[in-house]
Amino acid sequence: MAVQSPSNFDGNRPLKIVLISPKGPLYRHRGGIFRQSLRYMPLTFPTLKALIPPDIPAEVLCIDEGTGDVDLNLSADLIGMTVITGTALRAYELSRHFRARGIPVVLGGPHITLVPDDAQPHADSLVVGYAEEEWPRLLLDFIAGRLQPRYTQSPTLKLEGYPLPDRSVLPSRNYLTTNVFEATRGCIHDCSFCVVPSAWGRRPFQKPVEEITEDIKRQHAKRAIFVDLNLIADKQYAAKLFEALIPLKVQWYGLATTLLCEDLPLLDLVARSGCRGLLMGLESISPTNLRENRKPFNHPDQYMEVVEKLHQRKISLQGCFVFGLDDDTPDVFLKTARFAVKAKIDL
């Protein structure tokens, strides 16, 4: 059932869209513990901007509350917000304010995808799942006066043939780098503490390698960050991507699992492609924790070997750990810290 938009948009001028990433208590918020570090340009806004249908004249303002403030008196025809659980209350607060002013609000992102029924009363419309197909459809419906309460990702979605992200929508001075790229999306694993399988399932999505290299060339990037959760999930695709990166002479940083270090030819190719650092979810030094949380391919007795193999290839390691698992005891923090130092984990 379509909802009648309260907007004053009449189609005789560009559509004024405001996209907001609400602030959270820690990550990417100026009042949190990460004031300067870990701040690279998010891809959500550049992607949404690029997805606006070319036959819709639009003015787009993007506000990342980690770097700037929201003007509560701003004017807009439509407001969209990307929401994680840690920012949901702030998103609902902003939504309530702008809807009271007669501005329609669209909510999307991981939290909305996980609990759409909980979020529905807080918005005029929701985007559930990935936005590549649904965001353009929503905008076309909006200008036609038939905005739907919910747009849900198609199970047949493929991430190919879409416009490259438009990074001009955010000021580059607010970020350590704008050279942020995404080749794949999703993860084939089913770790119990991870939001990805719960929100989007375990189906992997891949963008054509030539689209990734085109984007890197367009950015004139010499250093790059890949935000993919697991670049090596499909080894054949990963090898094709890494081969394509070699002639670009780019130094890159990304995420992978410890399984990479069990495939030395692929690891060597990763190094040759310009990789200088990887984040790996080591999660725990307890095999019981790993087994109970569905990550049995991690082996703590092999972590030092993982670090050594990476360092031999001049690849640094950011090791991530989860605390509060069932097999943890009060001394888990000190034990893990001592292990990290002994293993020479870089960060």
Question: Can you tell me about this structure?
Answer:
With 347 residues, this protein is an alpha/beta fold. It folds into two domains: 15-152, Rossmann fold; 179-343, Alpha-Beta Barrel (TIM Barrel). It has helices at residues 44-50, 88-100, 110-114, 116-119, 134-143, 195-200, 209-219, 235-245, 264-272, 287-292, 303-312, 332-343, and strands at residues 15-21, 58-64, 78-82, 105-108, 125-128, 150-152, 180-181, 184-185, 205-206, 223-226, 251-256, 275-283, 316-321. Helix 5 (134-143) links the parallel strand 5 and strand 6. Helix 7 runs parallel beside helix 8 and helix 8 runs parallel beside helix 9. The mean pLDDT is 93.
Observed structural traits:
about 350 residues; TIM Barrel; 12 helices; Rossmann fold; six-stranded parallel sheet; five-stranded parallel sheet
| CATH secondary-structure class of the largest domain | Alpha Beta
Order of secondary-structure elements: EHEEHEHHEHEEEHEHEHEHEHHEH
Second-tier CATH architecture of the largest domain: Alpha-Beta Barrel
- The total of beta strands comes to 13
Largest sheet: 6 strands, parallel
Helix coverage percent: 25-40%
Radius of gyration: 21 Å
CATH H-level superfamily title of the largest domain: Aldolase class I
Percent strand equals 15-25%
Can you count the helices?
12
By secondary-structure content and strand pairing, the structural class works out as alpha/beta
Number of domains: 2
At CATH level 3, the topology of the largest domain is TIM Barrel
Query: Ends: how far apart?
Result: 51 Å
Average the pLDDT over all residues and give the rounded result: 93
The unreliable regions are none
